Amino acid sequence: MMSSPQSKKAKERVLWALITAAVLVYALFPVASILATSFKEPSDLTTGKFLPTEWSGVNYEQILVGDAQVLFLSSLRNSIGIALIATAIAVVLATLCAYAIARLDFPGKKLILTTALAVSIFPVISIVTPLFNVWRMIGLYDTWAGLIIPYLSLTLPISIWTLAAFFRQIPWELEQAAQVDGATTWQAFRKAIVPLAAPGVFTTAIIAFFIAWNDFVYGISLTSTEAARPVPAALAFFTGASQFESPTGAISAAAIIVTIPVVLLVLLFQRQIVSGLTQGAVKG
Amino acid sequence: MSASTEVQKSVPAASPTRRGGTVLSQRRKAERRLGWLLAGPAFVVMLLVTLYPILQAVWDSLFNFRLTAPQDRAFVGLANYVVTLTDPLFWRALGVTLLITVVTVAVELVLGFALALVMHKALKSVRGLVRTAILVPYGIITVVSAFAWFYAFDINSGFVNTWFAWLPGIGPDTNWFAGTWSSLFVIMASEIWKTTPFISLLLLAGLAQVPDELSEAAEVDGATWWQRMQRVILPNMKAAIMVALLFRALDAFRIFDNVFIMTNGAFGTEVLSLLAYRTSIGRLEIGLGSAISVLLFVCVLLICFIAIKLFKVDLTSARGGK
Fold this sequence. Notes:
The complex is a heterodimer of chains A (about 280) and B (about 325). Chain A has about 280 residues and is an all-alpha fold. Chain A contains eleven helices and no strands. Chain A has a domain at about 70-235: MetI-like (MetI-like fold, Orthogonal Bundle). Chain A starts with a helix and ends with a helix. Chain B has one domain (about 90-320): MetI-like fold, CATH 1.10.3720.10.
C-alpha cells in the first residue's frame, strides 16, 4: 500500500517469476530426470549423477532399430491403434448421448449420468478377473478388440460428462435463428451448431485418449504377446539386451518417446484441456 | 448459477407446442424416443463393460476354481470370502491401501489447492506456461512416472542418494526399495506428483465459481488474505473440495501401477489391487481372485456411501448433472 504502484508491480513480477519457476520444477523435474537417464550409456548409469557424463543415443538405437525394436515398436503400434479406436468409439457414442441429455427432454437422464459416474469410479481390477477368464474362452484374450472393449469403461463415462457440460453451454437458439433466416435444418446445424460443438468434441477426445493411453491394468492382464500388448505393459516387461544388463536405459528412452505425444498435445491444446476438465468437473 | 438457465434454454423445442394436448404428447413421445435412441447405445455399452463383469465376478467368487485345474471347479459358497477375510495378508494390504489413500489425498489437497490458486491468479504473461506445465504430469503415463521416480531413488541408477547425502540417514548405500516405509515414500511421491494436477483442476473449477465481489468486499472491509481464504473462499468452495476429495480417494484406493513397477508388492507394500491381480492373473485362482475383486468393489462402495451420507457430497450436482 505504501509503496508506489510501480514498485508494487515490479515486486509482483518477481514474485510471479519465482512461483512460475517453482511450478515448472515441480511439473517437469521427473520428466527431465528420466530424459537424462535415457541418454546415459549402460556404464554411465551408476555414477549417481543426474546428467550423463557423455550424451549417448545408444538406448534410442536399441529400441528403435536394435534388439528391443520388435518389442517396443509393436507395443507402440498397439497402444496408438487401441487408444485411438477406443477414443473414437467413446466420443461418437458420448456425443450422441450428451446431445440427447443437453437438448432433449426424456426420462432417465439422471440415470444415465449417475451410471456414467458409477462406471468411472469402478475399480478396474474388479472387472479384469472375470474378463480375463471370459476373454480366454471366447478368443478375445491378447487381441486389440479384447482391450478396446474394456477401455470403453474408462473413456466413455468421462466423455459423456465432459460433452454434456459442453453441450449445455451451446446457445441452441442459434440453430432456430438460422432457420428463420432461411437456412435449411441441415445448413443451420452445420453452420451454427457444428462450429460451436466441435471444440468440445475435440477436447473430449484428447482427455479420453490420455486415459486410454495411460491404462496399465487391462494392458498387463488381458495380453500376453506383441499381438496386443500396449506400451505401459511392455515397459514393465522390458528386459535388458542380455540377462546381465539392466534395461534402465532402454525403458527410459521408450518412456520419453511415449511422453512426446502427451507433451505435444498439452502444448498445443492447454487451454482446451483445462476448460474441458474444469467444465466436466464442476458446473453447478 | 448459469446452469439452471442453460437447462431451460436447452429445451426450446418443447415449449412452443404447449398449446394442444395431443400435439404435445405426440411431440413428447417422439422426443423421448429420440432421446433414448441417441443415449441408449452409450448407456448399454457402459452396463455391458462393467455391470456384466462384476456380476460374473460375484458368481465366480462362489466357486473353487483354478485355471490350472478347471475340472475341479466346485461350488463352495462363501468359502473364498472366509479364506480372504481370515488372511492377515488381506488385512495388511487393506491397511497399506488405506494409508496410501489418506496420505496422498491429504498432501494432494494442500498442494493441489496451491496449484489451483497459482493457475487462478497467474498473470496473463505466465498463465499459459503454468497451465501447460501442470498438465504434463496429468497427461503422462503412470508407469512412466513410476519409472522416473524409481530410477531417481534406485540405489544403482539413482542420483537422490548423492544429492541428499547431507541428510542424516541418507548415504550412497541407502536402499529405498528394501524397506516398507522408504518404498511407500517413493510410491506415494510418484502418485502425488502424477495426480495432483487433476485435483488442482477440480479445485480451479471451484475457485472460478466463487464470486470475485465477495472476496473484494471482504478486502475492502479490511480482511487479511488468510481471513478471506478462511471465511469467504473456502466455504464457497466446499462442494468442489468434497468432490475432489472423493474422486481422488476412490482413485487412490485403486492404486496399482506405481506399486507394481517399484516393488511389485515386496517389503510389505502390497495393496489390494495388486493382491487381486496376483491371485487371479498371477496364480490363476479365479475363484479366490474374484472374491478379492468383489471385496475391493465393496470397499469403494463403502467409501462412496460414507462420503455421500456422512459428508453430504452431492456428486451429481457438482459434476454438472441435472
